[in-house]
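About this split. The held-out portion is used to measure sequence recovery: a designer receives only the structure tokens and must propose an amino acid at every position. Recovery is the fraction of positions where the proposal matches the reference. Here is one held-out target exactly as it appears in the evaluation file.
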């Protein structure tokens, strides 16, 4: 058993003894141990946590392009460097074509992976648990994309028409 594991067990025992309890909630023990200086997160854990928070924030950053589309501004590529996975983020307005092409390819592979897992889940459900007609799923998204684009175009056209109407000066009642 590692020294670190024993240290954690000792902290739990100390908490139980101090509070006279038989059962513990690890979150409560964590709060207690940190306040008393019995445990501090390792630097690597803090870096990992910050990285996750920053990546989530970058993924949620959007801009409006010259055509009025809402697009993600930051795009990531994942590379293997010195035996470690590295994420490199670039801005759509300044990143190289190579960076953007690789980012788009990697995102597409993620989508394919999600679809493959969904198909596996559906197949398993249909073959093992579904007592009714098998659930069918299309993985051709062409119509979905067309409908989504059409909806965006209709909303944009409606907004532009509304904008034009509100920018026109009202007709005077006096003639």
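Reference sequence for scoring:
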């Amino acid at each position: 058993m590692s020294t670190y594991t024993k240290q954690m067990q000792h902290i739990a025992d100390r908490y139980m003894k101090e509070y006279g309890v038989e059962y513990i909630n690890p979150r409560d023990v964590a709060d207690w141990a940190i306040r008393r200086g019995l445990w501090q997160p390792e630097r690597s854990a803090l870096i990992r946590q910050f990285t996750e928070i920053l990546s989530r924030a970058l993924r949620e950053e959007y801009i409006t392009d010259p055509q009025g589309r809402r697009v993600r501004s930051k795009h990531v590529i994942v590379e293997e460097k010195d035996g470690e996975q590295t994420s490199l983020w670039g801005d759509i307005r300044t990143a190289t074509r190579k960076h953007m092409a690789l980012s788009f390819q990697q995102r597409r592979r993620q989508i394919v992976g999600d679809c493959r897992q969904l198909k596996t889940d559906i197949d398993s459900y249909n073959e093992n648990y579904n007592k009714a007609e098998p659930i069918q799923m299309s993985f051709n998204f062409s119509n979905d994309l067309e409908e989504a684009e059409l909806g965006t175009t209709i909303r944009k056209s409606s907004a532009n028409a509304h904008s034009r109407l509100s920018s026109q000066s009202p007709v005077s009642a006096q003639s």
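Annotator remark: The helical segments are 3-19, 26-35, 43-59, 97-128, 142-167.
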